[in-house]
Amino acid sequence: MSIDVTALRRQYRTHGFVTGVPVLSSDEAGRVLARIRAVEAAEEARGGGTWVERDLSPESMPPHPIEDVLGPLVRDPRVLEPVRALLGETVLLRNCDVFIKTGATDIRISWHTDTGRIGRSTDGMLSLWLALTPATAENGALEFVSGSHRYDEPPPVRDKRALTLPPDQTEAIDPDRVIRSVLEPGMASMHHFGLVHRSDSNRSGVPRVAVVMRFIAPWVSRWAAESGTATLVCGVDRHGRFGLRERFPVSWTIR
């Protein structure tokens, strides 16, 4: 893949996100999805096993078999090329999330950000959202509020359990600034940790599945990252702010 780095940086800096980034072929995305489904089925066959929803705690979550599926993916040059364009040559992975939004549900994800922290460090953290199935208006594709990663006045600091915006902030969102991220399998979007976004319910009869990779630059603070550990996926870490480990935490949500 060859990307226009200048255009990518300009759009990300202005809007807080980029979307429609080609990463995998549709066939490759289908194979990743099949492996995730196989792990899920094996865990369910054992009576649940470790295939249960957990609170995100990047420092303490134990290894999970699905990490073996995602390990090569987070180091794939096609994933890392656009990430490096935005974060620099050295990139760390904080954690991964697997989101399975089942069909014909009325569950919505409200307007929120991916961090409650404020300050320069948030510029060094981004979420890469990789579609393994189509992401459409019908099945709950992400919606971004363009430019919402920048504030005239900084919002109050919140913790990772209080990321949903309060009613007064959601009511102030300009609908003309809301952009829906429609993706085909294998395509990705990337958004700033401080960008306001949401997803609607899945009104289709087919699950919407995505893998989300939380990448950080090595210079961000532990306080902002809400983690003291990370996985080096490319480059050389000369900052030493995080304890580096080979394995990385994975959380998953089935709704």
Secondary structure category = alpha+beta
Summarize the main sheet: 8 strands, mixed
- List unreliable stretches of 5+ residues: 53-59
CATH architecture: Sandwich
Task: Report the strand count.
Answer: 12
Beta-strand level of the residues, as a percent range?
25-35%
Tally of domains: 1
| Name of the CATH first level | Mainly Beta
Total of DSSP H or I helical runs spanning 4+ residues? 6
CATH H-level superfamily title: q2cbj1_9rhob like domain
Mean pLDDT: 87
Bin the helical content: 10-25%
Distance between the termini: 33 Å
Which fold name is given in CATH as the topology?
Answer: Jelly Rolls
Q: Over all CA atoms, what is the radius of gyration?
A: 17 Å
Q: How does the overall form come out from the CA principal axes?
A: globular
Topology order in helix (H) and strand (E) letters: HEHHHEEEEHEEEEHEEE
